Amino acid sequence: MQFAIPLYSPCLPPTDVLPHREPRETGLSLTHSRAMYTTEQTKELQHHTRDWLSKPAEGADLMKRLHQLRDILRFHEYRYYVLNDPLIADGEYDRLYKMLESAERGHPEVVSPDSPTQRVAKGLSSTFRTVQHLVPMLSLENSYEEAELLDWDRKARELSGLEEIEYCVEPKFDGASISLLYENDLLVRGATRGDGVEGEDITVNLRQIRSMPLSAPFSRHGIRQIEIRGEVLMTKEHFRKYNEQLAEQNLPPLANPRNAASGTLRLKDASEAGKRNLEAFLYHVSYVSLDEGAPMPAGLVTHAGSLAWLWEMGFRSPDREKRVFKGIHEVARHCLAFEQQRDELPYEIDGMVVKVDSVALQERLGMTTHHPRWAIAFKFKARQGTSTLRQVEFQVGRTGSVTPVAKIDPVAIGGVTVTSVSMHNEEFILDKDLRIGDQLLVERAGDVIPYIVMSLAELRTGREEPIRFPTQCPACGTDLVKPAEEAVWRCPNTQCGAQVLERLMHFTSKDAMDIRGLGEANIRRFHEAGWLPDVPSLYSLPYERMQELEGLGARSVNNLREAIEKSKGQPLHRIINALGIRYVGETTAKAIAREVGHLLDLKDYSPERLQQIEDVGVKVADSIHRFFHDADNIRILERLEAQGLSLSGNRLQAVEGALTGKTFLFTGSLQNLKRSEAEAMVEANGGRLLSGVSSKLDFLVAGEDAGSKLEKARKIASVHIIDEGEFLRMVGREDNG
Ligand code: IVH
User: pTM value?
Assistant: First the structure.
């Protein structure tokens, strides 16, 4: 017989079944709980790992040791996904994984559902089954101001008769809420919130979240069945990358990471869901069913204890993000202070959740039909606003793409005044049925660019007008074209004034030819005067006539002439970057410059040969190939060369030095060097720079406040993470910091 304790359900067991609570440490520096594995276990698993990697088992021996191999892989998944602190290289993990896979392939009868190989999804789901949560998933009461928190605390004290209440505070994750059911240690079901009573069974997709264990040692605590709640989210970085991928396919981006997370959870193709890198925070044990006579695990007596206990069970709980306070004033101060740090977190939060820490007291306070009385959300300032759509401007980009941009009445969102918002493409306008005069709901999530969520159709007066997408280029009048595979209308005229202006601005910008003193306004004026019909004409400007223009004295004209002349000496990689070839940024430009003897050699490169250049993949190779097979582009390059720019590459001029053959990347802020100086030192010493962290990277130089690059590098054993001092020593300069 089992003894069921549905926590926080209307049919509660008497509170005295819960063991007596010991007084605990409170305040800001609550110590972190133990990790899933002890030091001893970690050492042992590491030892076994090395053993397997050096002499893999085979045949009967492999079958005998299969359990160990599974444990090893689970351990390394935990180190990587939950702790963010891997102990082996990616390649080593892959080797172990393949060993397990091949052993299981021969013996399907020994494959356990929680084997690391069993996350991989097979086939598509047609629909998601509706399932009932063991305990209804209630919502939270919201508060927006300190006074509301104080009021809520006062009521809780009145109800409980206590003078002061201890609270646990944690972030309110802005994602999709889920509930997980484990039976006999195995994850048997994962569901969306749905209407709170019933949700959709999305187990296949949830199994793809690698920080979420497929099994956990609950039976060690006498637990047969347990229901756990949490939030699934996508980090800002993965969200940005995901939106970039959408943009490459000419699809409009998603509004925010929350939509990306909930959309991913409902994908019919679980292997696709697996590629989106979701994370899960589990913050609440809603139900446990214990073996007869088994005591409730001591940790579950307080909320903070539950978070620590979940962490010990191998879950990513907000154990490290939580704080316990005595009394509401400290709570309020913490919530207000946390709002200031909101943007520094790698994921979005939309507030804090304040929970009565004692579970016994939670039960005494109970719940309404809508929310528990023992918890409240303290919501941060909204990052949405409404404003009127006044007009739509159609902007022509460097490559001729025509982007509709909404001009709206100024509206302050999250501390920034927004007046224009991209509408991406025609489909976006049609899908959302946007009209001139509409009230728009605009969102600016974290560091994400503003986004039109929807138009508030119920506020329409009938005077709104449809948005007409132009059929001709708004700048040059050429008929627009829309290639079949694209969602974007383009102006096919490469001489189009708007495109030329955009190309000129890019050509002269700081990271390209770095021509100071020119600026957008002068580029426009010179273009209008007919002096700048294209990029090469920059080098034959009529300086003698410039003083006729207002605000341009002899001195500024002279400075400008000098800056333009000086730019002729810019190295090839800057010229390549300045050309604005699609997908070719600074790093790829450097790789190309290293590869070629002369830039025009690229006319004879096949896409396959281009792909052999470092940093160049299929898409980039294709774009470079197209660029060098366009006669206009070749003519421009020839004219630039005739004006005195050097298109010779550095292939034959490779520097030999202390860093030859080594690759580097800088992240965070350096103390003694400017980033550009440090990068120049790498190149001067024969080293090469990479644009991102990968297994090709030898050294990551991490300065202060290094972020995601450092985190990623830590996961790749072959990357050496060094500080600025070490870097300076490598190039033979003393660290004077
Ligand atoms: S506690 C009975 N804690 O916010 C337990 N909820 O607006 C109630 N949420 O539906 C939930 N972070 O999906 C709780 N740390 C957190 C949370 C959190 C995000 C979500 C949850 C809930 C919604 C209510």
Answer: 0.65
* Ligand 1 close to Cβ of residue 192 (< 6 A): no
Q: What amino acid is encoded at 389 in this protein?
A: L
CA-nearest residue, atom 15 of ligand 1: 172
Statement: residue 359 has pLDDT above 70? yes
Do 580 and 507 form a contact (C-beta atoms < 8 A)?
yes
Distance of CA 606 to the CA centre of its chain: 34
C-alpha–C-alpha distance, residues 327 and 321, integer Å: 19
Q: Which residues pair with 349 in a beta bridge?
A: 173
- Give, for 638, the enclosing helix (H) or strand (E): helix 631-642
Query: 36-42 contacts: CB < 8 A, separation 24 or more?
Result: 36/78, 36/82, 36/311, 36/312, 36/313, 36/314, 37/75, 37/78, 42/75, 42/87
- Provide the H-helix boundaries in 579-630: 586-595, 607-610, 618-627
Joined together, the tokens standing for residue 619 give 């898409």
Half-sphere exposure of 542 (CA within 13 A, CB side): 13
Question: Which amino acid, residue 499?
Answer: Q
Q: Which two tokens stand for residue 181?
A: 């059911």
**How many helices (H) and strands (E) in the chain?**
25, 23
CA distances from 350 to 122, 171, 331, 379 (A): 35, 8, 16, 6
Please calculate the CA angle 325-328-332 and round it to the nearest 5 degrees. 95
Q: Is residue 359 classed as helix, strand or coil in its secondary structure?
A: helix
Query: Within 10 Å of residue 53's Cβ, how many Cβ atoms?
Result: 16
140 C-alpha to center of ligand 1: Å? 6
Neighbours of 14 (CB within 10 A): 7
State which amino acid sits at residue 552.
Answer: L
Question: What is residue 464's three-state secondary structure?
Answer: coil
Q: Where are the alpha helices (DSSP H) in 446-553?
A: 497-508, 519-528, 543-546
The average pLDDT across 399-418 equals 91
Any atom of ligand 1 within 6 Å of the Cβ of 392 = no
Q: Which of 138, 177, 306 has the most ligand 1 atoms within 8 A of CB, as the residue to mutate?
A: 177
Strand duo 141-143 + 375-379: pairing = parallel
C-beta 319 within 6 A of ligand 1: no
How far is residue 478's CA from residue 466's CA, in Å, rounded to a whole number? 23
Question: pLDDT over 70 for what percent of the chain?
Answer: 93
The answer to whether the CB of 663 falls within 8 A of the CB of 689 is yes
Please tell me the predicted confidence (pLDDT) of residue 3: 36
Distance CA 627, CA 599 (A): 12
Would you put residue 161 in left (φ > 0), alpha (ψ -120 to 50) or beta? left
pLDDT at position 105 over 90: no
Q: What is the pLDDT of residues 207-218, one digit of tens each?
A: 999 999 999 999
Confidence (pLDDT) at 419:
95
- The total number of residues shown for the chain amounts to 737
